[in-house]
Structure formats: C-alpha cells, structure tokens
What we know:
By secondary structure, the protein is mostly helical. It has one domain. The chain has helices spanning 11-19, 25-32, 42-63, 67-70, and strands spanning 2-4, 9-10. It has a two-stranded antiparallel ribbon with strand order 1-2. A hairpin with a 4-residue loop joins strand 1 (2-4) and strand 2. 14% of the residues are buried. Bound molecules: FE2/S2 (inorganic) cluster. The site of FE2/S2 (inorganic) cluster (FES) has 11 residues, from loops.
Amino acid sequence: MLVCQCKWLTYxxxxxxxxxxxDTLDAIQSHLGAGTECGGCVVAxxxxxxxxxxxxxxxxxxxxKPSAQVNDGNTSLPVPAADQP
Length: 85
Ligand code: FES
C-alpha cells in the first residue's frame, strides 16, 4: 500500500527506512522527497511517525529504559495489513 503516491513510497519501504535510521518526517522528506510534491501524504506520514513516538513512549514507560535504548529496531511499527508479508 502506497503512503506517498508521488514518490511511490510504500508503508513497507517506510518501515524499512525507519529501521535503517531514516526515522523522522524531515529525513524522509529530504532523502526521498515524500511529502514534498502534492503534500497529500503529509498527514499520513505525520500519523505514522506519531504512532512510532507513542509506541516508543509506551515501551519506555513499561521498561523504564531511556528512549535511545528502546529504539532498537524491535518496536512494532504501524504497517497496514496490505503491506505485511
Ligand atoms: S502523495 Fe506524497 S507528495 Fe504527493
């Protein structure tokens, strides 16, 4: 499922990028240009990154670890069912 139709960016690719460290909206915009053409995906991208922040905050709250240790690539990311393997 595409999150950015202008740049043909899927949620699966977005998840892979986040796990590789391209993990902010600004980074996605500057690396891929997603969200910089028509802007139609910006809200979806913002919601995606907000969900990541919420997941990290929840993990931090339950573990008591600093967020840098929580963001270890094992955090569940919100990927629509169509993009799941
Ligand atoms: S859909 Fe992402 S910039 Fe157009």
